[in-house]
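User: I'm curious whether this sequence folds into something compact or stays loose and floppy. Could you predict its structure so I can see for myself?
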Amino acid sequence: MPWLRNGDTSANHPVVLAVLEDQRCDDRLLNEAFGFVLRCALQSTAHLTDYIISHGTAVQMAGQARSHELISVAITAGYLTEVTDGDGRRAYKLIEDDTFIHMRTREEIEWERQRKLDNANPGLTIPVRLRDGDACRYCGLVVNFHGDRRGQKAGTYDHLTKQVQSPDDMVVACNRCNSALLDAPRAHREKQMMPPPKRPYFKPKTLEWLRAHEYVIAHNIVLPDAAEPDTKAGQVPPGRDAGTVATRAPEENPASRSEGLSDTQSESDPAGDVHRSEGPHGDQSCDDPAVDTVWSEGLSDTQSERDPADTGSGPMGPPDTNQSECDPAEPPSRFQQIPAGRRHPGSGYAGSGRDGTVTGSVRAGPGRAGTGRSAPPPALVNPGPSKKRGRRRR
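Assistant: Here's the prediction. I'll summarize afterward.
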């Protein structure tokens, strides 16, 4: 369905306020130009012209008496850009800015209509259901075709291509996998897809629906005699294998992660060392407690974490060329939590206070590791309240 959406700040958009800089601006021109452009946008949305307004439409929206001035003001402010349509006629293109106005394109509307037609065609959907059953072809979990149609477990038909020619171009998918794929190409879909099940699983309600369907009766399709136990949506059908949840296609030119990896997949080097997320300065994050765990593993509380021939070059770490030290001038994150008994070597983080020896009821911690501070002196014993006698005044 076509629709037009206005941004919450569209009334104060820079293009809207640019009308105030026009010498022809008066008390009414600001709102008049804004209303004129919105009428043109609604007209473009209704007729699926994708932000293009013909000259005749602009004149009709503004009125004969005011059309020349309003079109000129809209072009000067940046509302409109003068173009030519496919037939070479004079036309105008509306500003494309989601913070101002956003409309659905013709391609989006036609694709939505085509999906609805394909999903309502029993010549496509019934063979797909008979082949795939009630399980997603990606994750292998049971889907729900007869209950909630908006949840992640709802059953849908995933189009492998926009030009569906046969049931081979559609598969059963859960709403979660189908939504994750978006506009991924067919090659990406088929790479993540499970093969058609040798023995499809049908819920009892699905078998009842198929037996009463006109398409099944007219084509004398043979269905299983008995239904298998009813399995809840989101579970693996009995005797079947689970697949993998579908993920969206990788970017064409990924700049920040390796090709073919999902957003949540870790990037590992051939040796298996995980490269953690970068910190605010582009280096390996000092706020990750796992960094301290790797470096301190195998060291006792009293064992030195520096080179015996310490020259102030920093802590001893694994021979990783990707390792980078954090800037000591930057303050540590206040969310950093270092496990008890471990100290970040030379990072400047405060320990838990449980390192070192305990004297009486006072814990002598190491203070900030790597700063060279000595343990705080023990607190003085409070002798208690004094028992001085006050002199009685006579």
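Summary: The two ends are 101 Å apart (CA to CA). The first helix runs from residue 14 to 17.
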